[in-house]
Write a structure and sequence with these properties.
Elements lengths: L2 H11 L1 E3 L2 E5 H8 L3 H10 L9 E3 L2 H11 L12 E4 L14
Antiparallel strand pairs: 1-2, 2-4, 3-4
Helix pairs in contact: 2-3
Length: 100
């Protein structure tokens, strides 16, 4: 995939929640080639590498609004709400997958 195509794909995945541009954890994990569970685990284990507002969990109302926007199914997350990652400037902190 070319850089232009990759950039366009990421831009399509950016959503607006709570007045912030965000990526869902599933999309960020895909970008880094890791499982969503692993991404969230690494963020929890390396909190000092991230600003306090780096990631937040969506409320049930936000999840329902998201489902209605992109027609997502209810399954696949074991009942957990997606987490949202503020972006784009904070993505450079994702060195936990680069061996840094």
């Amino acid at each position: 995939m070319s850089n232009i195509a990759a950039t366009a794909q990421i831009e399509r995945q950016i959503l607006l929640f709570r007045g912030h541009k965000v990526l869902l954890d599933v999309h960020l994990a895909e970008l880094y080639g890791v499982m969503t569970k692993r991404l969230n685990e690494q963020v929890r284990r390396n909190r000092s590498r991230f600003p306090d507002d780096f990631m937040f969990q969506l409320t049930q109302d936000e999840v329902e609004a998201l489902r209605s926007q992109i027609a997502t199914s209810k399954g696949g997350r074991g009942g957990r709400s997606p987490r949202s990652t503020s972006c784009p400037s904070k993505l450079e902190r994702m060195t936990v997958f680069k061996g840094d």
